[in-house]
Structures are given as structure tokens and as C-alpha cells.
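Hi Y.,

Following your request, here is the sequence exactly as I used it, all 311 residues.
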Amino acid sequence: MKEDKRWLRSFRLAYEGILYALVTQRHMKIHFMAAFAVLIPAYFFRLSKPDTLWILLSVTLVISAELLNTAVERTVDLAMPRRHPAAKAAKDAAAGAVLAAAVFAALVGAAVLYEPAARWVSGVPAQTETASGRVWIAVAAAALAVTALHSRLSGAHYKKEVPMVDAQRLLQLAAQARSQAYAPYSQFKVGSAVLDSDGTVHLGCNVENSAYGPTNCAERTALFRAIADGVKPGNFAALAVVGDTSEPISPCGVCRQVMAELCPPDMPVIMGNLSGQYRESTVSQLLPGAFGKESLRGRTDAKASEEARDE
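Below is the corresponding structure, written out as C-alpha cells. Let me know if you'd prefer a different format.
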């Protein structure tokens, strides 16, 4: 029984890998459409058994190559988030494997379908074929159709993946935002860049006020701007902040509290300066034991109980 459950779990995880690639990779969608474009005429042209096997082999080879390419890309991004020649070489080689498989599939499709298509155009009756050939083509087309439909229904789940964080890019964008800072009193300009879970970057800078109290920090400006743009609390992937300091700048206590309210506890916070130095931390590390919604829960429950008694 345990062996059966392991087998089913392995099958489910492998199927989820196919769904992930189909939802997140544009080229996988193209490969699926190309497969349908080949399988449909292959079914009606009544191909011989060897030709049917060549078609099925080509479709399987292209989809398998794209799955491996996706795995390589995600692994390289995880191991080496910054740009590196070796990372580029690995991704290019994986993409080359997909190209080779696609070219092979195109040649097979042209070689196998040319004569049946020419006979159909000329009005010549199709050749007789083994029934099993059409059955297997129908099975393959049905499997692709079911997978494509399932990917459409479950697409939102797989698109929730947190984007890869490029610390250097976020720091560069934060430095650009710093140039827009309004700091006529302190002359201390700060910029921030916030990456949301959809991969969009929101910029912010510090905005001072002659009364000092209304002054807003760059980190809060970026976060509030993202919220105003429709990002839901908790849907943030990283925050970078840059200032003209000798050591990497550190967010103030108020900004840390705002981060604890709006951002995941394990979200990376990248702190840098104009010299190119930076260090990374997380929201929970910057503000351990933060006061949050959980801290209000006991008071809220007590108030609800008191109102219930009054009624």
C-alpha cells in the first residue's frame, strides 16, 4: 500500500511539473499548439504505424526538452541570481537542446505529412492504416488537451510563485529613485525599490517636511505606492534601500514596523550605499517580536465577548 502511495505521489509531482511549465513558460504553450497542429491532420490522414510512432516520438521529444530547459533555468536562477557568463552558457545550452528537438520534429512532420497532404489535395483516397495508429494519436491528443485545460483552471496557483530576487538590479533601481528625493532640510537623500510577487518593481524616495513629523521615508513611500497600485499586503518579494552612508544604510524603526505589517516575515531586505556595498537581512530579523495583528487578536476577542454579553 505504501509503495502504491509513493508511486501515485511521484506521478502527481511529475504532472505538476508539466502544469508548471505549461502555465509559466510561453514556449511550452507554443509547443502544445504545434503538437495539436500535427496530431489532428495525422489522425485524419490515416498514417502507417511507423509514421505514427515518428510523430509521437517527435512530440514527446520537444515537450521533454522544454521541461528540462525549464528545470535548468529555474535551477540556475536559484543558484546564481546575479548575471554570470556560466549561467548564461547553461541556459543557452538548454535552449539549444529545445531548438534541436524542435527542428527534428519539424523535419519529421514535413517528411511524414507531405505525401498524405498531397494525396488529400489531389483527391486521392487515403492509404489504409492499422487501427491502433489512430487510437494512439487520439490518446496523445486527448492527454495534451486535458493537460492544457487543467493548466488553464489551475494557472493562478502556479503563477503565485515568488519571482527571483536580483539584488543588484533592485539596488540600481533604488539608487535611481534616490535622485527624486525631496530632502531640502537634511540633504540626506534615500531611495527604495520594492519587488512584488508578480515581478513588478515599485519605487520610492524620502519626502521631507518643514514640520519634520510628516516626513516620509523612502521604504514607506515605495510600499505605500505599491499598495496604492493594487498590491495586496503580503504579496511582496523583496525590498532594497540605498543611501549615501559609509556602511549599508539601515531602515528606521517606523519603516521596520511598516514592513512587518505589509511584508512576509522572511522577505529579503537589501540595504546598500552609493559605494556599492550592501548586506541582506529579512523583515523578521530587522524587527524580531514585531507588534502585529496577532497582538490585537486577544483584545479583539475580549471586546467581541463583551459586546455579546451586552446583547
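Residues 85-122 form the longest helix (38 residues).

Thanks again,
Q.
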